[in-house]
Amino acid sequence: MNIVYLNGEFLPIEQASISVMDRGFLFADSVYEVIPVYAGRPFRLVQHIERLNRSLNAIRLSLSDLNIQWNDLFSELISQNNLQQGSLYLQVTRGSPSKRDHRLADETQPTVFIKADCLASNSSKTQNEPEALKVITVDDFRWQRCDIKSTGLLANCLARQMAEDQQASEAIFIAGEQVNEGSASNVFIVEQGVIKTPPLSNNILGGITRDLVLEMADNNGWPTEQSSIRLEQLYHADEVWLTSSSREIQPVTQVDDKTIGDGAIGPLWHKIVHEFADFKQRLFSGDLR
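Above: the chain sequence. Below: its structure as tokens.
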């Protein structure tokens, strides 16, 4: 039985319901997080909650009156679902006012929903048999606050379907000639031995796995650079990677009709994914939180 948390209660998902007047339903007036769980522990929880708070502040939604203890909630939900490897989906909406109105409703009680899911681990595949991805590029037709982890994801869903229509795994948003991010991932390239990713801006969501990749590279002395990436750089990169909490770190060998490098998964990807696997192993053993 899948137990979820909704507004102070733990209950079976079949019994969970919200009002049709909830602003998350009517306006996508809500933010969310997806937190991996490894060995029964939330992964980089502090960073996920910090990002949640940034999103809440950006949309002017406060949870201070609820006095939520995230650690306790997550631990209880993980225990009730006997979750060892998976993810926690957390969504906070502005709640359910008495009438539909574009103005922000200050008097409503926020809706807080958390559910636990099994999560297939990409790095559980052997490093000898990694899945190389084909991706496409699309014009970036999203709104101008992509740094907020909002549930208003229709543009992302449409882009992801465009990729699916072309038998591709992801769509990368391009603004003019600048690479932004994937529909649900951050983008890295390797160019002459330097690991590069676009800098954080209102066009990019600051990924938790993105930050970890940069940390691991710095710790190993591999040069990194957060700088603008042009479409031609993407096409001619030595390596291309996608990162996210669910994808972890995935190699790309084709962008649109262009083969990346020699068409094989690059050596730096093998190194970084080895570091990531080691990082998770230390998490499993209790050395990390």
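Residues 133-284 form a domain with the D-amino Acid Aminotransferase; Chain A, domain 2 fold (CATH 3.20.10.10).
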